[in-house]
Structures are given as C-alpha cells and as structure tokens.
Amino acid sequence: MTPVPESFAVRRSLFVGLSGLLTAAGLVLLLIGYSDQHLFWEDYVVIGVFPLLFSQIAIGFVLALIGFYDRLRGGDPYHLMRRPWRKNEATSPLAATAIVVPVYNEDVARVSAAIANMWRSLEQTGQIEHFDFYICSDSNDADHWVEEECAWLSLCEKLNAFGKIFYRKRRHAINGKSGNVADFCRRWGKRYRYMIVLDADSVMAGPTLVRMVRAMEANPEVGILQTQPYMVLGTSLFRRVLQFSSHVYGGLFSQGCSMAQMSSGSYWGHNAIIRVAPFIEFCDLPTLPVPDRGKRHVLSHDTVEAALMRRAGYEVWIAYDEPGSWEEGPPNLSDMLTRDRRWCAGNLQHFWFLFARGIEMGSRLQIWIGLMAYLCSPLWLIFLVAGSFSAYFRIRFLTLSADPEDLGAATASGGELLFIITLALLFTPRLLGILTNLPRARQFGGVFHLLISALLENLLSIVLAPVLMIFHTLFVTLTLLGLQIKWTTQNRADTGLSFTHCLKLYGWLTVLGVVTQWFATVYLGSASWWLAPIFAGWILAPVLAWATSLGGLGLEAKSWGLFLTPEEMQPPPELKGLDTSAEETTTPLWTDALLCPYVHAVHLSMVRHHPTGNSEAPSDSLVTLRERLLREGPRALNPKEKLRLLWDAETVFWLHQELWGRPSSELHPSWLPLLRSCSSSPLLSNYLVQA
Amino acid sequence: MELHMASIESARTFVDEKQAWNEAFDRLTEYLEGFALENRAHVSRMALEILDQARQLYRSDTSRSPVALTMELAQKRLADWLSTNLDPGTQSPSQILANGSVALLLSRVFRTAPDSFLAGPLPEELRQALREKLLVAGPDLNVSRMTPRHLDYGPMLGLARQTWHRWNIRALLVAILFWTGIYALFYWWLSNYFL
What we know:
By secondary structure, chain A is an alpha/beta fold. Chain A has 26 helices and 10 strands. The longest helix of chain A is centred in the middle third of the chain and has 41 residues, at 361-401. The radius of gyration of chain A is 28 Å and the shape is globular. By secondary structure, chain B is mainly α. Chain B has 8 helices and no strands. Helices cover 69% and strands 0% of the residues of chain B. Chain B has 2 domains: 15-132, no CATH class; 156-193. Chains A and B meet through helix 1, helix 4, strand 3, helix 5 and helix 8 of A and helix 1, helix 3, helix 4, helix 7 and helix 8 of B.
C-alpha cells in the first residue's frame, strides 16, 4: 500500500491547519486581553512576537496529538515499514551495505566495543557477508590516531574481520563529518548500494540493520530511512533524565512527525540508511552564498541532505517504531550547551535553504521547525522583557489614574485563560507520552516509578528551560554576529563537572536571577510571581549544572527506581560492555608509534611510503622537527607538529631507529622512561597482545 | 705524574665503556621485550648473542657508541630474519620491518613459537602464515565523482513560484476552503459567545 497523494495532502493540511488554528486562537485570546486598554509600545512587541512563539507550542502539541492518535489506532497503514514487503521479509535478498562510523577524537575503546557488538549481532542474523564497516577518522589528536589504528587491528583480528572492517584516516579533515562521509562516498561509494551512517556513540542491533536494508531493497523510491535512536548508557543524573524523556516522549513526536510528513521525513545524520548512488549524485552539500569563504560550509548537514534527496525525487522516511537503535546523550548541561552551540549555528544557516528553489514544501517545514527551535529563545526573552515592562507601565497607569472603569478593563483580560491554554499545550504532549507508555510501565520500573520520574523530569525541565533560553539567545547572537563555531568532540563520559567550573560558567546567571527578581518584586509586585520559575532556574543554574552532572547522583536515582528505561531493565546484548568509560592515561600514546615495535609497525603499515629508490630527502623543516623531538622530548611539539611527523613514513622509521640507537646522553631525559616502559604500553595490553 | 694521569684516564675510559655497554644491554633487552615474547630466556639469549657481535665490531671501530652499534645490529638482524621468512619483493627496509612485524604480531609467533624469533628460518607452515597476514586498511578505490549540484537560493518570489508549482492545486484549494470554513466558524463562535 503506497501512500496516496490525497492522504498526504489531507495530513499535511491537518497538521498545518490545526497548528494555525491553535495559533490563531491564542492570538485572539491575547487580543481580547488587550481590548479596551491603552496599548504601550511594549504591547505591540508582545503581540508581534506572540504568534511565532505560540505557533511552536502549537506545532509540538499537534505533532504529539497526531502521534498519539496513530499509536491508538495501531500505526500508520501507509507507512513504509507496514507495506506488503514485510510479509516476505525473511526471504528478501540483501545488497552490499557499508556501515560508516565517522570518529573524531572519541573514546576509542568505546567505539571499537560498539562495532564489535554490532558485528556479533549481525553475525547472529546470518547476513554478515552483506555488510562492511568503515571507521572514518578525522581525529587530530596524535594519541587518538595511534590508538585507533591499534584498536582497528585488534577488532579485525578478534572478529576475524580482515577485509570487512576498514580504517581510513583523513589527512585534511575538510568539512567535518559531512566531509568525512563524502570522502567515503568518493572512494568506495560505488562498491555499495547502501550506507548506514552512524555517530561515534551509535549502536544498532543486527536485525534492525538487516531490516533497514530489506526495506530499502523493497522500496527503490526511498532515499533515506531514519530510525528513532533512543538514548542509553547514562550514569549521570542529567543523562539519565534525558534518556528517560527520550524514551517516554521522543517516540510520540517522531510518530506524529512521520504521520504528518510521511515521505518528507527528517534525517538526523546518524542511525539511518542511505541509498548511496543518489546521495553521491544529488546530495553533496552546496556552498552557502555568503561573502566569507570560511563560512560557506554547511555545518548541520543532515536536514539539508534530506532536502536535497527529496528534491531529487527520493523519499525520506522515519522508522519511528523500529527497536534496536541507540545513541548516547550529552553527560551534563555544559556538554549539551557545547553541542547546542554547534547545532544552533547549523540550523540558522538553513535559513538559506528555506528560500532555495526546488526544495519540497515538507523539507521547508522541517527547516522552519529547526530554525525556530533556536530562534524561539531570543523571541521568548524579548517577549518576557516586553511583557514585564508592559505590566509595569500598566500597574503604574492604574495606580495613577485610579479610575475604577480602567481597573475593570484591565482585570477582565483573557490572560488567565491564555495562560491555562499555553500550559495545556505544553504539558499535554508529555501527558500523552506517559499515557502511551503506561501499558509497558514495567519497563520503566512500574507505574509509580514512571509517574514520579515523569514528575521530576518535568520539574527539572521547567527550571532548566530559562537557562537554555539565555544560552540559546547568546548562541543565536554570536552566530548572527559571525563568530566562528568549531566542530568539537562530544564528551561522552559521565565524569561530572567541578563546582568551580559551574560557578564560572553559570554564576552570572545566579546574579542575573537575584537582580531581576529584586527589580520584579519592587516594580511588579505580586505580578512578579508569574516569573518565579524563570528566576528560580537562573538562580539555581550553577547548582543544577553541578548536581545533575554527578554520576553518583544518577546511580542513586537508579537505585531508587527513578528514570529507569527499558534498556536498563533488560540490557540488550548490543549494549553489553559499553558502559565502562576509558581509563585516563598520563603517558602519551603516540610515542608508542615511534618506540614500541608492534605499534610502530602497525602505524607504518597504515601510512603511505615513498616507493623504493624514490625516497625524497626530508625537507629542512622536517629535519629540524625530528631533531627537536629527540633533543627536547615529546612534550615540546604541538599537536600539528606531532601529526606532521606521524604522517611521514620515512620520518617515523628514522625516529624509531634513532630513539633506540642513540645513547641516553643524546636524547631528552623524558625519552628514557618511555623507552623502558614500551613493553608495558597500554596499546599492547589493551589491543595488540591481549591475553 | 704523567703515568698516573694516563692510568686515571684509562680507568675512566674503562668505566665509561662499561657504562655504555651496560646501557646497550639494557636498551637491547627493552627493545626485544617490546616483541612480547613469552620465552624470556630466549630474549636474554638473543640479547647476549647480539651484544657479543656488537663487541666484536666495536673492537675494529671504537668511534661508534655501543648503544648505536648494538641496536643497529639488532634491527639489521630483525630485517634479515623477516626477509628470509617473508617474500619482501621490492619493499623498502621500512616496509619490510613494518609488514614483517605486523605479520609476526598477527601470526602470534611471540606466543606460539617464541624460540624461533631471530633464530634461523621459521617452519614452512609458520612462514606461510606470516606471508598471508597482510594488512588491508581499505579496499581498492572505486572512485566516484561527488560534486554539489547547482542550487539557486533564489529571491522570495522565486521560492513562492517554485513551491506552488510543485503543489497539488486541487488539494490546496480544498484545504484552503475547508480551513476558511473552520476559521469562519471559530470567528462566529467567538463573536457570539465570547466577545
């Protein structure tokens, strides 16, 4: 049963129409509140900003409502994953598929353990011969690079996967993750019909991977099939709360989004399968029409790639109820904000695509929702400031006029009703999320624990929202001012934040909260109580950031049965062994590529050699660098210099011979302990010479 | 006095040389231990053998440091031994050492046959295993051309034209009519019962 255009049009019109209707209703109520009153200029600001803000709440509500309806009726009969091909699924043939894992200075042991788990899970399906893994590294840290090489070799050996698991290190990490994936496509894309793009923290179950390939094989019109990844493996309170909310509410929104958008679904950049040929042909990211060359690259590639795939005539679907797709969330507020800063810059860039020719209406909607996700914060702040000033002037006006008729006009506002409706629109999706999960409450620790966890999660969301509002406003401002935002490694370890860090980063919010609350109490009187949750969020920000980052508190909550998720209650084999964070090593690992014979050999086998007899003399600067390393020790070089040495095979070989062959008097003293400890290198014990 | 000075100088040289040879021995042992051989006696035996060879060379050329001489001999011996057991073809010395050591690692010679390390040709079975252990970091390239397609970011007018062009006019009209009706009803309800 393929989707009929009428059904698509009806759904789209329902989604847009209902959202518009709710927004209009909200605006009418707001205007009623202002009827017969003198309007200050702040009121015009409030009236101008309100529809934009309210429309976002309305969109969220409508999506959740549609998702809830779809869940009640047992799923969308037109959905890709419910079509007749499922009847013969077990016998459907598969096609060559690459599983692409882009990495960038990640926890190497964690990434290789996830690949090993996915490999074993695929082996159990009996379809492993159709899949190859590609670890595509953009790591610019020498320690990570050398460790990745050893981990790759260890993986291949342990799983007997030589020729099936590949490692590629880019010399120039151009265009971040999208450039890394494009590099894979250019080199090996033709060998595969599909690629499954993962993030470094992604894990997918073998049966899910196989089913996705079959879905693509059965539906050649589909270009991208996105799964709904659920957050797992959190130990800090922050991460556990996030993964709880992703399980309780996330699926409902995705289901609503899928039902409303159908074949114009979202692509989130990972845990998705892509048809390689059209991706190569149509989805290379265009440069942005901005004058600054350094800012022409699209930072947030996924939404644009989905839009380009739709533009080329292929469908993009969300497989919202496929199990076996996981990711890890940010471990604390600071890391979430780091990630948000990057996403904010990317989403704001999408503005260009909003007006580009040939982009599907569904894609434009996705772009608009993504844009507003961040633009709402400054708008909300403007709304609050303008609303507070308006309230102040109104109170002052009433005090001065003391005319009972004026007072009557002001108090007969529709404000209370609007406030109640806003709260209903905000919290109904959450309520629906809880309702849909009640039948499987046992997977969340039982009904009582589910309800208490949901209540606490809501409280935390309420106090964190004003903090996010302020930071998102800053990010939007920084981006609009053209300040550079770099692609940084996502921290995936629940190691906790120090209270000093939290005070430095969030202390000013406490000051802001105290000062604004004082002003509000003095000038607005009892009306300031409406703003209490916002002040509370700001004042408590440092404590909240610090406390929620603690692993101990997260585990304590777990022992009380709070924020439990199905994966915690019944851990799937694919997540086994992934919850241990890497041990911090104080000794450098990259020097093992120069010292330790096996690590040195592995690294030399991976970098390009000059052909025999054609070896060019090293440049003067390289010769100087080599000598500096020997005379001043490994700490004397900066990260770029280390990488430069490691990229040159002849230099690595020469350094190996010199380090072992020079008397200690000709070497920097820091080399001597490294030479002595090379046989006990963690790279040998963890990867190459495991017991 | 001169005789005394000479004897002091000679004693100092002797002490320096002894220290240098001690360092050479330590360095060589540390290097060989890096191969993780599970027979430590064999490591010591090899170390002494290489050290003896180095001493002999040193007698004819005292300008080189014992550490340099010893380690050069050790690495040459390793390269020769790997060349004998592998079929290196036209590989450079660095490639022979790299590929050979990786093959050594993957065939687990350090665990299964540690006594044969640097000690003559390996049994044919092991040699065969060693030759098969080649690293393939990536398959053969199959290059595709991936370039961005032209995208007209267009003025707002162009956007409207393009988007509407792609719309199903009939569905759009029906939707507009339907929602106009709903909005009208909503307005009527507000005007009569609320305002």
